[in-house]
Amino acid sequence: MNLDIIFPDITSTLQITGCHFGVKPAKWNYPKHHHHLYELLYCQDGEAEQIINGNSIRMQTGDWLFMKAGVRHQTDNRSENHFSFFNMHFDLDNHEMRMRLSTLEYALYPKVLADSTKLPLYIQEIEQIMHNCMLHQTHNTSVTERRLSLTYEDKLALQSFILLIIREIILLQKPEAEESALFRPGTTMHEADTAHAIEEQLQLSALSEVSISQIASELNLSRSQCTKIFNKIYGISPRQYVTQLKLTRAKHLLVSTNWTIEEISIALGFNSASHFSRQFRQGTGVSPAQFRPKHRMGKAES
Hints:
Layout: E1 14-24, E2 29-33, E3 38-45, E4 47-52, E5 55-60, E6 64-67, E7 73-77, E8 83-92, H1 95-101, E9 106-109, H2 111-114, H3 119-136, H4 152-178, H5 189-205, H6 212-218, H7 223-234, H8 238-256, H9 261-267, H10 273-284, H11 288-291, H12 294-301
Antiparallel strand pairs: 1-8, 2-7, 3-6, 3-8, 4-5, 4-7, 6-9
Helix pairs in contact: 3-4, 5-7, 5-8, 6-7, 9-10
């Protein structure tokens, strides 16, 4: 008997910004702010206080802190000496992962819990990438900052370990996430059912001219109610969700067809190729032409 075990096709983008190791002196403070990406903070040494939505969170050596996009927070070094850490901001366009990550506003994973996962192993691997790069690169002129230049092998390794770290964070959130949005404070069964109905309509109409106002009308909601309920359950607006669906479809077309950028933009319902390119760059960090494999670029754009 012949048997093929086939994995699903995957076309996904990981965005990483502000990924760095830092050492800050006593009494150091980073004022209240927020980011448009998810954030992970690992306390290497020392002690820091995080003020998140008015709540005080104490971080000690070995602790990890996850924060959802848009959460306002500030950091204060509470150590007598230095506070050293690893910090990164990230986003990915996989909807299921985003739903899982958006279950909690923030979560502290103490050292005893983090040590029971593979997080210590992965952060050691990232530290090793940093040390190897520092050994082979000359120091720049800045006293307080040193920017690394990574080989493509190191870039792949860094992305791989960051994805594995994200996986561990998602697994740590699993017990809470499995309770689902229904059990979050202020969320009703009706709101959850409504959000799921909106999602189904968005998936069916993502590439058509059906508007969010029309979907809201079919569900006997106002546009603002539709947006508020969907955002409450899924952590993003209906429009952002549709954009993610389109970008996922666009990436598939870029790597699997010879369609031109203009043909793809028309198929996905964008006003123009330039509008599509702007949205694609905003969502992925690269242009459609840069994302497309070079062996297809020549054929599609010739």
